[in-house]
Specification:
With 456 residues, the chain is mainly alpha-helical. Helices cover 70% and strands 1% of the residues. It has three domains: 54 residues, no CATH class; 152 residues, no CATH class; 213 residues, no CATH class. Keywords: Cell membrane, Membrane, Sugar transport, Transmembrane, Transmembrane helix, Transport.
Length: 456
């Protein structure tokens, strides 16, 4: 048994079972599915915020004639209608934690075959209680743009603070959603509920089923929130963010990005969907980073986070897992008939960041010849892109775009910087160079096989 066979055997005994357990773990699956459900809201909110906040100042525009007039018109229109244009953002991304609490609880309840809507509503209510306790306010303490003193005086009342309903509340939403569903699952399993007599409509009976679990969930989580407030002076989401601060900063570092990239690629190499397996871990962080960047952009503050959806989709998985767009282009010019045909079949999907034809058709899976570039090309892409963003040569990710958007366009839109498209094109060329030696070895191997078949 050679080294590669021993390595594969070891991986099948250790790595594959771990990956299968992670992929089938119901809580991670619920987090993954719940976060994915919220992606359209991120796209809508991001687009609306960009429309309301043009990424330029009129005084900095060169004289481009008609184009400059159009851009100035956009800027003036956006300034005049800023509040109206930002309303979709305020109702989507600024409340992202709320939607995620609902979605994760819904999917976890589905895993347990429990009443999904009841579970989601209970989770959402508890999340609001611990993350946005209503506060009394007087008009003199409010800053409302465009309001006179008389208008302000009429605004005294109760208000829901939204500070921790956005990205800063995502981890609290995950904790609350999982905790509430687990409590409800335990109570349903032990048949602890208000039982209605036979003949009561199912909708009414189901509503009463949720009463006791709701009270228990509120008592537990609100009690925990009060304890945290009493001893630390912080709300529960603020305390959770403080505890998770090392992880939040670590995954956004170059080392953290390279590490999660390598883990995903190793899973892919063994035929396991690396992106899906790592998604429950990385997606909450990526969503939080992206929303924070977008909020900073809107406020005119520095954009600080690197590891966002545009970075993952158009740098790490450029053309699909393994950043194989460059390899697809090489295959188109291969002397091997098999590889050339594969290149023609794979280039179309690769443009839209889909590369299963390459992963399983070349294959990349368990192919020792392609293991090194398949794992390390995305890492090299990450290092280069991180450096360009760190030195402010290319903008960081601001808005979420559909991951199937062609990479140069997706990067330019996601970073709101045309230089991001140039960076992606440069990375494709670099990836072609990095894959080339391994591609030639594979091509030589395929040509020998084809010649052998023709001779026989």
């Amino acid at each position: 048994m050679n080294f590669m066979e021993k390595f594969n055997e070891l991986a099948n005994r250790t790595l594959v079972p771990i990956a299968n357990k992670l992929g089938n773990q119901r809580h991670l699956a619920a987090i993954r599915d719940g976060m994915v459900v919220a992606i359209p809201l991120s796209i809508l909110g991001g687009v609306c915020l960009i429309i309301s906040t043009p990424p330029f100042k009129p005084e900095t525009l060169p004289n481009w004639g008609f184009v400059s007039d159009m851009l100035n018109g956009w800027y003036n229109w956006a300034q005049a209608n800023k509040a109206m244009l930002q309303l979709p953002y305020n109702m989507t991304m600024a409340l992202m934690g709320l939607f995620i609490a609902f979605a994760i609880a819904y999917h976890l309840a589905d895993e347990y075959e429990m009443p999904k809507l009841n579970s989601a509503i209970v989770s959402t209510a508890v999340f609001l209680i611990v993350s946005a306790p209503t506060t009394s306010a007087v008009a003199s303490n409010l800053i409302v743009d465009g309001k006179s003193a008389t208008d302000l005086l009429s605004l005294a009342g109760n208000y829901i603070p939204t500070t921790y309903l956005d990205a800063k509340g995502i981890f609290t939403a995950i904790l609350v959603a999982i905790g509430c569903v687990e409590i409800m699952h335990f109570m349903f399993k032990k048949d602890i509920r208000i039982k209605m007599p036979e003949g009561v409509p199912p909708a009414i009976s189901s509503s009463f089923d949720a009463i006791l679990p709701l009270f228990i969930c509120v008592i537990i989580f609100y009690g925990l929130s009060l304890v945290v407030q009493n001893f630390s002076g912080q709300l529960l989401p603020s305390m959770i963010m403080t505890v998770l601060a090392p992880a939040i900063s670590g995954l956004d570092s170059l080392v953290g990005i390279c590490l999660i990239t390598m883990i995903a690629q190793v899973f892919w190499f063994f035929g396991l969907h690396g992106a899906s397996i790592t998604q429950p871990i990385r997606l909450p962080f990526m969503q939080m980073y992206l929303i924070a960047n977008l909020s900073a952009f809107s406020a005119g503050q520095p954009i600080v986070h690197y590891f966002t959806q545009p970075f993952w989709s158009y740098v790490i998985t450029l053309g699909g897992g393994g950043a194989t767009m460059g390899l697809c282009i090489l295959l188109l010019k291969s002397k091997s008939a098999e590889l050339k045909t594969l290149g023609k079949l794979s280039i179309g999907p690769a443009i839209f960041n889909i590369n299963e034809p390459i992963i399983f058709g070349l294959p990349m899976v368990l192919n020792p010849l392609m293991m090194i570039p398949f794992i390390f090309v995305p890492v090299i892409n990450s290092i280069i892109a991180y450096g360009l963003m760190a030195f402010h040569i290319v903008g960081k990710g601001i808005i979420e775009t559909p991951w199937t958007t062609p990479a140069p366009l997706g990067a330019a839109l996601g970073c709101m910087d045309f230089k991001a498209a140039i960076m992606v094109i440069g990375l494709i060329i670099l990836d072609m160079v990095l894959y080339y030696p391994f591609f030639k070895l594979l091509e030589k191997q395929k040509l020998e096989e084809e010649n052998s078949v023709q001779t026989n």
